[in-house]
Amino acid sequence: MRKAVTRLTVTLSLLVTVFATTLPGYAALPFFSKDKDELPSLAPMLDETTPAVVSIAVVGSQQSRQRLPDVFRHFFGPNAPREQTQERPFRGLGSGVIIDAEKGYIVTNHHVIDNANEITVTLKDGRELEAKKIGADPQSDIALLQVDSDNLVALELANSDELRVGDFVIAVGNPFGLSQTVTSGIVSALGRSSLNIEGYEDFIQTDAAINRGNSGGALVNLRGELVGINTAIFGPGGGNVGIGFAIPSNMMKNLVDQIIEFGEVRRGLLGISGGDVDAGLAEAMNLSVNRGAFVREVTPDSAADDAGINAGDIIVAINGNDIEGFQELRAKVGSLGAGTQIELSLLRDGKRKTVDVTLGSAEAAVLSAEEIHPGLSGATLTNGTTQQGVSGVVVSDIEDRSPAQRSGLVEGDVIIGVNRNPITSVRELSDYLNEKEGVIALNIKRGKTSLYLVVR
Mind listing the pLDDT tens digit for each residue in 291-307? Predict the structure, then answer.
């Protein structure tokens, strides 16, 4: 995990006492036993749930690069390397969730298994299994593994769109290498984004204690159904402050379905740029809402353009589910595959209307970077957007020791300009560089940071 979370401040015994005295009609909930002499407990539900949560141990190597000072070139000549590369072995621990017992599919976070050469899964019953990586999506931090074994237990998936703030949730994982740890809490918030943790963010926030090693573990409801994949924690100094984040199960399923079918995520693209609706914008435009996604620009011939979406529209819902802002819309669309049909509700001139959209492909414009410019060789470039919704060219993959990597490009960078000229697509980048030779200056958006890279 990358930051830290808190323990629920009200004990479980107090919580269930309130439920038992005020909601007798909920006798079927899992922490109520049919035996009147037995104390309320989550144990019956957890007996069915915890076998589906596994511990993941990885062994791998990471490359570290250190730029050598120019003064060394006086000693070693003009052909001296510009940087020193070292490979360092590492070991890591995390969690995972079995989602298909028959096929042996296990979901975890990409950062748990990133750069791993060996992946070992340990089940609750003590069995150790070698796992292979089926695919991953670094921008949403989801990875899919597979093991070959019988008698596995899988979790059923809940519809995470039906979650409400205040719903009780249980986090199951292996924090700090401690196996099968269970913590409880509630849904603190939904649709959390702009945290700069992942490229696509639509998190469930919870106060159920999530710690290092919980990454990839399960967040379940009181029926034992999977509602989220525990991913990140937030807290100064890594302390436990009761703020944890999970990827919604619906988002996870959309991504995993694509990985199973294609071996990768083929992200859908709407073709708009914009921002959040806030009180200031609502007052300036005399809007009846103060949340939603404001459409600043529509890319010509995009899915949004074909559906009749206009600049100035306010998108307030996707497939009947309200959205908080632009980042939530971007994450939901980005987790859906190209060609998916969606329904968007929007406000135009004070009137609500619904449009049907068939998403385009963010991968449709994948070109060989080497053909565009020799200095970009080794990078995979696709159409996409920044976290702020600005259209550009996404570095979706990059080869080790390639010219593109030596130039300073990293996976996830978004090229939004060349030589101070704005660029919104791979085709524009290719057309512009066809007329240019020699050194180019790329305007890069890396998370919330803007920088220039010189490519020779």
Answer: 889 998 888 888 898 99
Active site residue 41: no
Marked catalytic residue, from 141, 202, 313, 413: 141
Examine the residue annotation and report whether 70 is marked as an active-site residue of this protein.
no
CB 131 within 8 A of CB 97: no
Q: Based on the number of CB atoms within 10 Å of its own CB, is 419 exposed (0-12), middle (13-18) or buried (19 or more)?
A: middle
Domain ranges of the chain: 1-264, 268-361, 367-455
Catalytic residue (one of 95, 110, 111, 193): 111
Both tokens of 243, joined, read 């703020």
For 86-101, the pLDDT digits (tens) are: 778 888 889 999 999 9
pLDDT tens per residue, range 383-394: 777 777 777 888
**What's this model's pTM, rounded to 2 decimal places?**
0.71
Determine the Cα angle at 334 with ends 332 and 336, to 5°: 75
Active site annotation includes 140: no
Could you check whether 268-361 and 367-455 share the same CATH topology? Answer: yes
User: Considering the chain, what percentage of its residues have pLDDT values greater than 70?
Assistant: 83
What CATH number is given for 1-264 in this structure? 2.40.10.120
| The CATH number of domain 268-361 is 3.40.50.2300 | no
Residue of 140, 188, 215, 396 with catalytic role: 215
- pLDDT, averaged across the chain: 82
The CATH code belonging to domain 367-455 is 2.30.42.10
Instruction: Outline where DSSP puts E strands in 264-322.
Output: 268-269, 272-276, 293-298, 314-318, 321-322
